[in-house]
Amino acid sequence: MSSEPRRSCALRGTAWHVMERAVLRGRAAKANEMPRLMGVDEKAIAKGHRYMTLVCDLEEATVEYIGEERKQASLAAYFEAFPVADREAIDAISLDMWPAYINACQANVPGADEKMVFDRFHIMRHVIEAVDKVRKQEHKALLKAGDDTLARSKYLWLTNPENMLEPSRERFNALRTMELKTARAWALKEALRGLWNYRTTGWATRFWRRWYFWATHSRLAPMIDAARLIACHLPNVLTYFKHRITNAVAEGLNSKIATVQKRACGYRNPDHFKIAVYFHCGGLNLHPAALTHTKVG
Asked: pTM of the predicted model, to two decimals?
């Protein structure tokens, strides 16, 4: 190896150790408190379905904890690091419907069933995926009959019409007025967005019952499956009207983390990933003076 690549590697190594020391200082100086409102999400860190569990402070928009994988133990380890009194003080937790995270909250957070809010964006993602399944099935059936009506239309059904360019909007408006199963599935998806516009649990519940009847009588299997999935978790969908939180902050942090990953061309080492995330998204005081009165054990 020539001197230039060796010098470059040495500089990267030095920069990494500076970042690592700064994160250790910042985390040691930061008050060890649980967020009042927290978001729990997952983040893929490499190919092959390798995930990390993120806990975010929804008020401060910071990453508070990173656990390896997305198992119950991944999240439970965060809660177990705090006394029960601190866990009781949590007001609300936004998360998706991943069973491992639900179990970790129920096992470690007193009153978790009243505090968990299943994130509206994750719920809508399930319904959007159902719409795409309907489109794929219908497109395949139409092609067998020599009809390519739905060809190259995938992103028309997944994109907000307000964000479409004029030619795409014109084609989409024509498609959604046709007697297509995909158009009916899309209409169901769009109608469900209205659930979160209600002000009270009672009115939201009435709306849900109407929507659920419509969805389960649509004769569209993917939409029926999505509706039943949401129905199984409905109590913690409706807790939104008590706490009114979403994982939008966590999703924003995920986007920021993705940018960090892209700059680093991915992270093979989970510890390096954690340090980089805390450095950029941890809300830490990274200045050496942060530990003027703090001793690191």
From this structure: 0.84
